[in-house]
Amino acid sequence: MDDLFRELKKTARGRSYLLQKGIYLKTSNGRPFDLRTMVQKSKRGKWVATAIFVKLGLKNKVVTNYHQGGRLALVKPTLLRAGCTAAEIEDYLRRLKTLGLKTARCFEGKSRRFKELGLDVALDRKGRLWILEVNTRPNFYGLKTLPDKSLYRTVIRYGAGYERTK
Predict the structure, then answer these.
(1) Structure-derived torsion over alpha carbons of residues 158, 166, 65, 128, reported in degrees to the nearest 10
(2) In a domain, 9, yes or no
(3) R_g of the chain, CA atoms, integer Å
């Protein structure tokens, strides 16, 4: 550990860095994926989990984002192809929703200005969930490309009345 720390200090040269644990993502048909949980504040001020979808990467890539060839996909078919049972999928959906709402309440404790959050959550090969990042202005326009348009409509409905920029 001491050797690693010395090497990292040399590399950083006094600058701040964030070191992130490497996570081996679960794959679906050989493609890595992570999950996006959208939570939005209703007009009454209550946080609501409005959408959960998949960001599906290309085979042999470690990232899932659009600019690296990724695309959006639906959760249930992706997790079925990844070998999950229907019961496991329902459990993951419940846990992702809970994780999103708990995270929103944490953010709320620091600032009330947030109206929506997008949690990028990894599902590793052992079935554990890991928060990769929390986006305070999540992009959800890609949801229009999914076969199920209800996710996009729900996110738009909860976002109505809030100023958004692309």
Answers:
(1) -30
(2) no
(3) 17
Buried b (16+ CB within 10 A) or exposed e, 57-71: beeeeeebeeeeebb
3-state helix, strand, coil in the chain (%, to 5): 35, 25, 35
Going by pLDDT thresholds of 50, 70 and 90, the confidence category of residue 16 is confident
Q: Write down the pLDDT at residue 17.
A: 79
Share of the chain above pLDDT 90, in %: 58
Supply the pLDDT for residue 33. 96
Q: What domain range includes position 95?
A: 24-159
Q: Token match 């109206």: residue?
A: 115
- What the block records as the tokens of 84 is 């999950």
Which backbone phi and psi does 48 adopt, to 5 degrees? Answer: -135, 135
How many folded domains does the chain comprise? 1
